[in-house]
Design brief:
301 residues, mainly alpha, 0% strand, globular
């Protein structure tokens, strides 16, 4: 294992990126036979089972919180984001769905101004505007290639941004393990409710997809949060974007999908904007002698 924190953070982020990429492939495979709502429930159920051994060592202290209503709200919005994101991966070209999911940090900047009253100056606003140009390049509103499904993917990004702000608020009082535990404890019943009207049990190999989906999702989140504790968001953001070529290659290999040139161009623009926003966030955090921001929450959690 590398000796420096930055090297360990990079390795953890690479692992997280591979896990999230594999999760996206599992979602797509499961979507061939299972409704999105059912996939989301099993992702949370098996994800909670995969998480419990890691939280066991924290003991009873992990259950202590005075923010239960806020956890319920955060989890409800998170389930909404998950349902939109899973639907997009299952029904849109995978590269397009993942590219649009990376617009979440753009919405986080806007949400931070609205909910946290943070001051955002012209350079970061310029990066946000450039990022939204990348979104427009991918979505192409008004063209013959425009799909209403892209709005579902963008809805997932907007809801993910709100969740990221809520995580920042929760983290001011509770430790990370408590946040993760209560998120999953609420996710399981909340995702069961929309799954019941369309319920069907997985059959055959579908069980492998949904079990792997829960394991990859939880593993990706654990590696993601630990990477951000060790390294700067600005240095780790480019690594996290490696999920896109990984997913695009898997989509080409397994499903015969070729990413459009507009998706590639738009994703590159979004990447540049997000990289600058992350860089500025770290600079401002260092000036304030605080930790790197937690807004870099993973989309489509």
């Amino acid at each position: 294992m590398p000796s420096t924190p930055h090297a360990r953070a990079a390795l953890l982020m690479i692992g997280s990126t591979m896990f999230f990429g594999a999760m996206a492939v599992m979602i797509r495979l499961a979507s061939d036979t299972l409704p999105t709502t059912v996939i989301a429930f099993f992702r949370n159920f098996f994800g909670l089972l995969a998480l419990l051994p890691f939280l066991w060592r924290s003991g009873p202290a992990v259950l202590r919180t005075r923010q239960m209503p806020r956890y319920l709200l955060r989890s409800a919005i998170g389930v909404g984001s998950m349902l939109c994101g899973f639907w997009a991966i299952g029904h849109l070209p995978m590269a397009q769905a993942i590219s649009l999911s990376y617009s979440a940090p753009l919405f986080v900047t806007i949400a931070a101004v609205i909910f946290l009253h943070e001051k955002v100056r012209m350079r970061r606003w310029s990066a946000v505007i450039i990022g939204f140009i990348g979104v427009l390049v991918i979505v192409q509103p008004g063209s013959t290639s425009f799909s209403l499904g892209t709005l579902v993917a963008l809805s997932a990004a907007v809801l993910s941004a709100i969740v990221a702000i809520q995580i920042k608020q929760l983290s001011r009082v509770d430790p990370a393990d408590t946040i993760v535990l209560y998120t999953y404890l609420f996710w399981v019943p909340l995702s069961l409710l929309p799954a019941l009207p369309a319920w069907q049990w997985p059959q055959g190999i579908d069980w492998l997809w949904v079990i792997a989906l829960g394991a990859f999702g939880t593993g990706g989140q654990l590696l993601w949060t630990r990477a951000l504790k060790l390294g700067d968001v600005s240095a780790l953001t480019p690594i996290s974007f490696m999920q896109l070529p990984l997913v695009a290659f898997a989509a080409w290999l397994l499903f015969g999908e070729d990413p459009s040139r507009w998706t590639i161009i738009g994703a590159a623009i979004i990447f540049i904007a997000n990289a600058y926003i992350a860089h500025r966030e770290v600079q401002l955090a260092r000036r304030a002698a605080t930790n790197a921001p937690v807004e870099a929450a993973k989309p489509a959690e």
